[in-house]
Structures are given as C-alpha cells and as structure tokens.
Write a structure and sequence with these properties.
Layout: H1 11-18, E1 23-26, E2 50-53, E3 57-66, E4 80-87, E5 92-97, E6 110-116, E7 129-134
Antiparallel strand pairs: 1-2, 3-4, 3-6, 4-5, 6-7
The structure holds zinc ion.
Length: 136
C-alpha cells in the first residue's frame, strides 16, 4: 500500500506514531482536539497546536466495505472496511478497521488503535498508519 509522505506540519505526528506513541494535536488555547495534523486550530486560530497522548480506544461511528479501488493506493487492500471512529477523547477520525469480518462491523463496535508501521523503508520516506481493530 502506498502511504502518505510526511510534511512539515505532520512530521512530529508520524514520528510519534513510528515510536509507538499514539497522540493527536490539541489546541492549548481552547482545548479543541484536531483529527489530523494541521497548522492552525479551526476554532480559535491558535497556531501552537501540541501533540497529546491518547488512549487509542473508541467506537465505530459509521463504516462501509469498499469493494472497488477508487484510490489506486488501496487496490491491494480490497475489500477493506473504511470507517469513521469516535475516539474516547472526542476526536472523530477516518481510518480502516482490520482483523474484522465485514459482516461484524457496525456503529458502536468498540475498537482499539493499531500503529501499522511501513514494511520496508528502502522504498523511500514513508509513514505509519493509525488503523483500528475490534476490541474484545
Ligand atoms: Zn483553539
């Protein structure tokens, strides 16, 4: 699977994940969590977002099973479960559900984050992915 490349804004997010630390940006000015690395807080326009550790647990908000490769980067994953996950901290993130039969995924399913490291660094810079699997 082709993975996203880090940017100046997202480098620290991916570095933390590569080191096994689950963390998401939060605005110290207003406390708003961000669902992905960004340079400014969309609530108060603060530009000093900080990475804060999260528990990595949450529930599925919505999910769909993708059977057709709309994005070539995910063609090898077909079929896969694309989902919106509500983290316990109140962050809604888009990701994939792994280790889960498609007929099992449903809104409210408890999930836990998994850091999926790039398999081979020799192909150039790459990033870990934050995926989710059902929580027993
Ligand atoms: Zn803010």
């Amino acid at each position: 699977m082709k993975r996203p490349l880090p940017t100046a804004t997202s480098q620290s997010f991916f570095d933390a994940a590569a080191a096994g630390r689950l963390s998401f940006p939060r605005c110290p000015g207003c406390g708003a969590w961000q669902s992905y690395p960004r340079p400014y807080c969309p609530v108060c326009l603060g530009d000093d977002l900080e990475l804060v550790a999260i528990a990595g647990t949450g529930t599925v908000h919505a999910a769909t099973v993708v059977h057709r490769a709309i994005v070539a980067a995910f063609a090898e994953q077909i079929p896969y479960i694309h989902a919106l996950v509500d983290l316990d901290e109140g962050i809604r993130v888009a990701s994939m559900i792994i280790d889960c039969p498609p007929e099992v995924v449903r809104p409210g399913l408890p999930v836990a984050a998994v850091i999926d490291l790039p398999p081979d660094e020799t192909d150039g810079p790459s990033t870990p992915l934050i995926l989710f699997r059902p929580r027993l």
